[in-house]
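Q: Got a minute? One more chain.
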Amino acid sequence: MPCNSRRYPMKLPQLFPLAAAALLVGCASVEEPPVRDVGPFPTRWQAEIDAHLAISLIDPDSRRVRYDMAPVAARGPEKASVGYGVCAWVNARNRFGGYTGAKETYFFFQQGRLVSSGLGAPAAMNEYYCSAFRKAALQR
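A: Always. Here it is, folded:
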């Protein structure tokens, strides 16, 4: 069936820029305000992480931890929480005695104490927080 140009005069080309603009508005990112009042720096952060891994892993004696950064002031996993975040690559043996492979894991501190970790969390969650912590480190 042929299109009747008198009945639908150029509506589709006129709607295209409006639809494109609406899609682009959804892609705009909102900058979060800088993190302030984060509390004391966790001076024993490596010892706290090590103690947490010792009680959380199946074979804690086999743990291998590599830190890529020091703790940075950042927003945490809980809504409106601020503190210090750090990421590490954690590898340990599983129940079968084989190493699982290094996995990037986040650790979050408040008032100098470890309050949250991504150990056992989905990889996407650890990637999200570790990228946020790295971004916070670059802004300092």
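A: The longest strand covers residues 82-93.
Q: Perfect, thanks.
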